[in-house]
Design brief:
The complex is a heterotrimer of chains A (81), B (576) and C (789). Chain B is of the alpha/beta class and 576 residues long. Helix content of chain B is 29%, strand content 26%. In chain C, strands 1, 2, 5, 6, 7, 19 and 30 form a 7-stranded mixed sheet that branches. A 5-stranded parallel sheet of chain C has the order 14-13-12-15-18. A 5-stranded parallel sheet of chain C has the order 21-28-22-23-24. Classes of the chains: A alpha+beta (81), B alpha/beta (576), C alpha/beta (789).
Chain lengths: 81, 576, 789
């Protein structure tokens, strides 16, 4: 039985802190949402929310198509010179 | 051409373009093209800030042409045209180039290719701009009068609203008696008003209203002229004709009810009747319901008769539409039945109960009053047996397809609305007809009362099945569009219409055959017969242009010269 | 339009409340007829709910593509004026049949004429909140453009009052601002933000009494945010990296000179602010060193003097000269020496009582301890400016003394005051001195800020807040009391500072961190915006306020809010739309593309349990639409729809339904009883339903469930009318008095209703209804003018 999810407002506030950790992870290689969640020891719902915000503001992007299990890999957007 | 002063503005569209096209390179490439004196880029050309800047450039640089390379003209054509006007530039000297939907969004994976294509598109736009003349819209005075065809509930109600807005309404009705279907209906849902009294009160108001002229026993014979100023010829009585001038026409010719085939659900039996017949029966008398000389104690309703049909051998051209009003109407009839005689057993054989919105409460009421509902699948419809005791057999999906047999005194076929045949009218007005046979609107979502024929509107059930209140709303919506057209006193039509080079024309008549709008007429010019465009009828469609063997036709804004120049510019760029 | 008396009196012929599809359609119709229309919309963009949809049934047109031309037409129609982000306060029907509308435009804090809609403010904003236009599927920022196709496409700052910490700081510092910046890792920016208000950052981080912490809403939970400790982190870190300020005197100079008397907190601050504006500032300090109370009133152990020295460098780097050991005794002399204005930051002379020596040194703002000798150092000026009985300087609301060119603040004005409050007065005085020097009238109301956030509302919102103890409490865990107390006093590490900053609840939404200001290319951010009130005379009113969506939380058996993979249909429409929040249709629990999706129809409709028996009319169709779109974008997915009746009754609708069936959508006839989590596959859901065709109870597993929620009335318009209320029908919609013959006519003569405000409707029916309402309103106006009998 999964524990009750934290309130959405609270999860979204954590984005500013979690960005750096996700960026560090993705610097090594692209990750799926479950991979990020496992590495950071956070629920997948929360990892998805932070990742989505980072994508919305141009920090990460998805790579290609979803894998056989339906998950996308995400990577850091390259800085434009 | 080289004396032109064209300004080119290229839009980043906030990344939608600049993420996939090198906007600076485009800007640089066209800077020195012939005719161009200014080439700039903007983050969002449609923004107020950018528009202000562009207007300033028009004035400061004395630009006489504008090329804006951004998104589809569907979005901002009018925006930029009115901006040009505000800057004192003829709006037709602005050319829109679509480098978003037609370039950046289509080539998100190839920046070099997309950039080259964008440059080519802009060069083509510049080439066109060099050849665009100043044009003015064609202004047509309108007549503050309208013709309404059909004096049913929709027609009567539109006439009243038009008159209240100061537009004179000529209301014509084919039959001798106005009022349409509603005039014959009994108690209506959901407010319980009586049809005839509704019609009577409307007719009374119509007759009192000075701004309405009602013609009964009258038909439309002919229509000519253009939007805002049609001439319509009416036939009243046996042989009299009247000619009238109107600015717009509203068609409210209503529907027909589905006539079941003799073999459908035992319709040849006298005790198998339509819902309309049953409702009439309910209006007569009080107490126990009598039909055909016997008391009615058990009624079986079969829904979706003549609606939601599928193609089959017996039904080669099916009515695929749902007729919308019938579920509610049948359930309402059941409630009325119960009010008259609470001992009547009622059985509703349905596919889906479509008592939408507030009508859902009628469904609740019918259930509470004891109606029994049985559901059948379209693949296995009920069968009616007219040999001996009238009975209906149905596989009820609510009880796992169990076959149930119902003895009935009356079987009521809940028949739907079908389009009303009116070939003559359709020909005269060139009314577009949809797949379902009802009159076709321009866009079923956003423009449900307008047709592609300028100045002709459709309302009520001739457009699609509706309830009374929905027909009235539809009628008033058509009035709204009519008033919008006529209240100003004039309309402005696009000047991008066809043109004939009379010297080249040899009057072969091919163009008139190609034009769906009747916008070409034969005239005399310097002693010979030639074709002439009637600008107010022309839609700039261009079907006439390719059929002319003498190349005598062209469309303003899309002339052969302009298109050729665009192709040349484009190919030259792509060949680099 | 022939002008008559009434018409000439009116500002607009018709006021339409609500700019969704109904409002826009009525507006366009009336505008085309030549009437002048005012269209009022409470959101920052017009378009209503329609613009948020993916595609529409049955044509599968892209919703944006067909809406944006309508929106653009409405925005640019010569007869239509639109006011967005505006609300109606009250409508009154006059005796002559016209209406008086009172409304206000809410401040967006962005100048719409300057804003170019680039969105940079949104990217730079440091406060993340749920995006209501994506129905909380993802987060946006406080500074934002509502959605990409917004009309007008302008940014807004959605403030919720001023955060309590910002509101209460007497110095005008924005603690929420720098906290938000530290949370985002922007420590330099945090220092620079603080510097905008005061140069005395290091000192405040040691000596401020932190009223912000007392007001901090988090204090109602496990403990307030450690704002002062965060400030200390910011100052210490910056000073470690920058032993000197990295700026010099401002290049653009103003040719006025200002004398500051007293280098205490008030004087130093006033000097700083004025020097930043380019004025020539000289501070005269009677004592040997600058700093006032900070230097002489607070012991070194509390406020190390090297910190104070570094703070003061922030001021002197601007070219401010501090002349210590110089006592000023004549204001007239200052004038003669060429000073155009004077600020008196004199302070009180100190008699160090026993109590003060042993205490921390902060003075109390409330008490004037009886018997303590503290007199303001104002005696030399008794002849030149007005003093009160106890020696304090008399000033007006703009800190001006009886001598126009002399302003005053700090202890010498108020009596013993805190450093923080004195700083505030220094800032205010600097503002008014500049106004005075530029010849502008002095207006105390200029400095008025937004009212405080409603803390109770924030507390209620955060009812389920997780526990995160303040660092100082964490440091006391698992160690001895003595060690704990020592550890708690240590300054924060960077990790601790960010953790602490992350405990902030963003009470007022906007933190006032000014990141938006720093990135905006057109200088469009304007925190001084106030609501603009309007009194408007109109001929008639159309209510087009639309509908509310049923809140799926009200059906707890379906698990919405409990299971992330149970979403509403509106959320699904967002997932399908081209401006979708995720990169594809992904399920919220883990970002997987679903392949087995279920729709549950009639959620909140035809349901006496939630007191809503009506059918919402659109759900069957929008569900069939979404099913078709999913089959298009996820070709391998299975789609199941659990239904009671399929209500596809409009033109082309039944054909659309047949098309969905043809695409392989599984229509299951049966009501869903409940939805629970799968025990095998986390994230998957088990739907338990009665399969009517088979006649038994079944369970099926899906990886995403969509609840097709119904439409409910929006009752906001009902309280709008003064002295009367508009009649509602039995279902709380606005009632049509004769729905058969007179669509749109309400119980108030001259007020009409269009679209879903009157009953659940789909888009085509709304268009028809709005056209009808427009005609009714037009007829009413014509009647007013007496043109048609």
């Amino acid at each position: 039985m999964t524990p009750l999810q934290r309130d959405l407002t609270e999860i979204m506030r954590d984005e500013m802190i979690m960005r750096d950790e996700i960026t560090k992870l993705l610097t090594s290689e692209p990750h799926t949402v479950p991979e990020i969640a496992e590495a950071l020891k956070v629920p997948t719902t929360e990892a998805l929310l932070w990742l989505t915000a980072m994508r919305r503001y141009g920090l990460v992007e998805e790579v290609g198509r979803a894998d056989a299990n339906g998950y996308f890999k995400y990577t850091l957007v390259k800085e434009e010179n | 051409m080289l004396n032109r002063r064209i300004g080119v503005f290229i839009c980043h569209c906030g990344g939608n373009i600049s993420d996939y096209v090198d906007v600076e390179e485009v800007r640089k490439s066209v800077e020195n093209s012939p005719g161009v004196v200014l080439s700039k880029k903007h983050m969002f050309t449609c923004s107020d800030a950018a528009q202000t800047e562009m207007m300033k450039d028009v004035l400061d640089e004395k630009l006489d042409g504008l090329v804006i390379a951004s998104c589809s003209p569907k979005l901002h054509l009018h925006t930029f045209r009115s901006m040009s006007e505000r800057a004192g530039l003829n709006p037709y000297r602005y050319v829109q180039v679509n480098i978003r939907e037609q370039c950046s969004w289509a080539h998100t994976d190839n920046m070099r290719g997309a950039t080259k294509k964008a440059i080519a598109l802009v060069e083509a736009g510049i080439a066109k701009s060099c050849l665009m003349p100043s044009l003015s819209t064609i202004r047509v005075e309108t007549v503050p009068k309208a013709l309404i065809i059909g004096a049913g509930i929709a027609g009567l109600r539109s006439a009243l609203s038009l008159a209240r807005l100061g537009i004179h309404a000529y209301l014509i009705e084919r039959e001798e008696q106005p009022g349409g279907w509603v005039g014959n209906l009994g108690e209506l849902f959901p407010q319980g008003k009586k049809g005839p009294s509704l019609i009577d009160s409307l007719l009374e108001q119509v007759r009192r209203e000075e701004g309405i002229t009602l013609f009964t026993g009258t038909e439309l014979l002919e229509k000519s002229g253009n939007i805002g100023n049609f001439t319509v010829k009416l036939k009243t009585g046996q042989s009299d004709t009247i000619s009238l001038n109107v600015g717009a026409i509203i068609v409210t010719t209503g529907f027909d009810t589905y006539a079941p085939q003799k073999t459908e659900y035992g319709f040849n039996d006298t005790n198998v009747i339509t819902l309309a017949e049953y409702e009439r029966c309910l209006q007569e008398g009080t107490g126990e319901i009598q039909y055909n000389g016997h008391t009615v104690k058990r009624v079986a309703y079969i829904y979706c008769v003549g609606s939601r049909q599928k193609t089959s051998e017996s039904c080669p051209s099916p009515n695929t539409q749902c007729s919308r009003y019938c579920c509610t109407s049948a359930i309402h009839a059941a409630i009325l039945t119960h009010k008259r005689d609470a001992t009547v057993g009622q059985y509703h054989l349905y596919r889906d109960i479509r008592t939408y919105g507030k009508y859902e409460l009628l469904y609740d009421e019918a259930l509470n009053l004891g109606s029994i509902f049985l559901r059948f699948d379209a693949a296995t419809p009920p069968t009616v047996h007219t040999d001996g005791q009238l009975r209906v057999n149905v596989h009820d999906t609510l009880t796992r397809g169990e076959e149930i047999e119902i003895d009935a005194d009356l079987v009521v076929l809940v028949t739907g609305m079908v389009p009303r045949e009116n070939k003559k009218l359709v020909n005269i007005l060139k009314l577009p007809i949809g797949k379902d046979g009802f009159f076709n609107e321009i866009h079923p979502k956003l423009r449900p009362v307008e047709t592609v024929i300028d100045g002709v509107f459709i309302a009520g059930t001739c457009q699609s099945p509706k309830t009374i209140s929905e027909s009235v709303a539809s009628a008033l919506s058509a009035v709204s569009k009519t008033a919008g057209l006529l209240k100003r006193g004039y309309v402005e039509l696009e000047p991008l219409v066809a043109m004939v080079d009379a010297d080249r024309c040899v009057w072969c008549d091919e163009c008139t055959k190609a034009c769906p709008y009747g916008a070409i007429q034969k005239v005399e010019h310097n002693g010979k017969e030639v074709a002439e465009i009637i600008p107010v009828l022309c839609k700039g469609e261009g079907a006439c242009v390719p059929v002319c063997p003498k190349d005598a036709l062209d469309v303003e804004g899309y002339t052969d010269h302009q298109i050729t120049a665009m192709i040349d510019a484009f190919s030259k760029e792509m060949a680099k | 339009m022939l002008p008559t008396d009434i018409s000439q009196e009116l500002d607009y012929d018709i006021c339409i409340v609500g700019a969704g599809i109904a409002g826009m359609e009525s507006a366009l119709n009336l505008g085309d007829m030549g009437y002048r229309v005012l269209l009022v919309e409470k959101e920052a963009s017009i378009g209503g709910k329609m613009i948020l949809l993916s595609k529409v049934f049955p044509t599968l047109d892209c919703a944006s593509c067909i809406s944006t031309p309508k929106m653009a037409s409405a925005a640019h129609h010569p007869n239509v004026t639109i006011m967005v982000y505006s609300e109606i306060d009250e409508i009154e029907r006059k005796e002559n049949g016209t209406f008086g509308v009172q409304m206000h435009q809410k401040p967006t804090y962005v100048d719409p004429n300057a804003c170019i809609g680039c969105g940079q403010c949104e990217t730079a904003c440091t406060v993340a909140i749920p995006d209501e236009f994506n129905f909380n599927l993802d987060a946006r920022r406080v500074a934002h453009i509502p959605f990409p196709q917004a009309v007008p496409k302008k940014a807004i700052l959605q403030r919720n009052g001023q955060s309590p910490c910002n509101h209460t700081c007497p110095a005008g510092v924005k603690p929420h601002g720098y906290t938000s910046l530290v949370r985002a890792g922007l420590h330099d920016a945090a220092f620079e933000l603080h510097l905008e208000t005061t140069p005395l950052i290091g000192s405040l981080s040691r000596a401020c009494y932190a009223p912000c912490e007392k007001e901090c809403t988090r204090g109602e939970f496990e403990g307030s945010v450690q704002i002062r400790a965060i400030k200390r982190f910011i100052a210490d870190r910056y000073y470690e990296l920058n032993s000197e300020p990295n700026y010099g005197p401002v290049k653009e100079r103003k040719d006025k000179r200002i004398a500051i008397v007293g280098a205490g907190p008030a004087g130093l601050n006033a000097a700083f602010q004025l020097a930043r504006k380019g004025y020539d500032v000289t501070i005269f300090e009677a004592e040997e060193k600058a700093g006032g109370t900070m230097q002489y009133g607070i012991p070194d152990v509390r406020l190390p003097k090297d910190v104070l020295e570094r703070d003061i460098k922030n001021v002197t780097a601007l070219g401010v000269s501090i002349r210590t050991n110089t006592k000023v005794e004549s204001l007239e002399k200052l004038k003669q020496d060429g000073f155009d204005a004077v600020f008196l930051g004199l302070g009180c002379s100190r008699t160090r009582s026993k109590r003060e020596e042993s205490a921390d040194g902060t003075t109390s703002v409330k008490t004037k301890a009886p018997g303590r000798v503290r007199s303001p150092n104002t005696t030399p000026f008794a002849d030149e400016i007005k003093l009160a009985a106890n020696g304090v300087i008399e000033i007006n609301k703009t800190l001006q003394t009886s001598l126009p060119y002399v302003f005053a603040g700090g202890d010498a004005v108020t009596g013993p005051l805190t450093i923080t409050a004195a700083i505030g007065q220094g800032n205010q005085a600097a503002y008014f001195i500049e106004q005075f020097l530029q010849g502008h009238p002095l207006n105390a109301a200029d400095l008025k800020e937004l009212e405080c956030t409603d803390k109770l509302a924030v507390i209620a919102r955060e009812a389920r807040l997780s526990t995160r103890k303040p660092t100082k409490l964490l440091k006391r865990e698992n160690v001895s009391k003595e060690e704990g107390r020592k550890a708690a006093k240590l300054p924060l590490t960077e990790e601790e500072a960010r953790y602490s900053a992350n405990r902030c609840l963003d009470c007022g939404n906007c933190s006032e961190c000014h990141q938006c200001v720093s990135v905006c290319p057109s200088n469009a951010i304007d925190f001084s915006m106030q609501p603009i009130h309007h009194q408007i005379k109109v001929g008639s009113v159309i209510i087009a306020t639309g509908f509310e969506l049923f809140d799926a939380h009200r059906k707890p058996t379906f698990g919405f809010g409990k299971y992330p993979n149970v979403v509403t249909a509106m959320q699904m429409d967002r997932l399908l739309s081209p401006t979708r929040p995720f990169n594809s249709v992904l399920r919220p629990s883990d970002g997987k593309e679903p392949d087995n999706i279920a729709f549950v129809l009639c959620v909140g409709s035809r349901d006496s349990q939630v007191d809503h028996r009506l059918c919402s009319r659109v759900c069957c169709m929008y569900t069939a639409k979404q099913a078709q779109l999913i089959m298009g974008s996820l070709p391998l997915a299975d789609v199941t729809i659990y239904y009671i009746d399929i209500r596809a009754f409009g033109k082309g609708y039944d054909e659309f339904y047949e098309q969905a069936k043809g695409m392989g959508v599984d229509f299951v006839h049966g009501k869903v009883a409940d939805i629970t989590e799968s025990s095998e596959d986390e994230g998957n859901l088990v739907v338990r339903f009665e399969n009517l065709t088979e006649g038994k109870i079944e369970k099926r597993e899906h990886d995403l469930v969509v609840l097709s929620v119904g439409l409910l009335p929006n009752t906001s318009a009902q309280g709008m009318f003064r002295g009367t209320s508009i009649e509602a029908d039995n279902f709380r919609y606005i009632k049509e008095m004769d729905e058969d013959m007179e669509p749109g006519v309400t119980s108030i003569d001259g007020v009409f209703v269009a679209g879903a405000a009157n009953a659940a409707r789909d888009i085509p029916d709304t268009i028809l209804h709005s056209g009808a309402a427009a005609v009714q309103a037009a007829a009413y106006i014509e009647n007013l003018k007496g043109l048609v009998c």
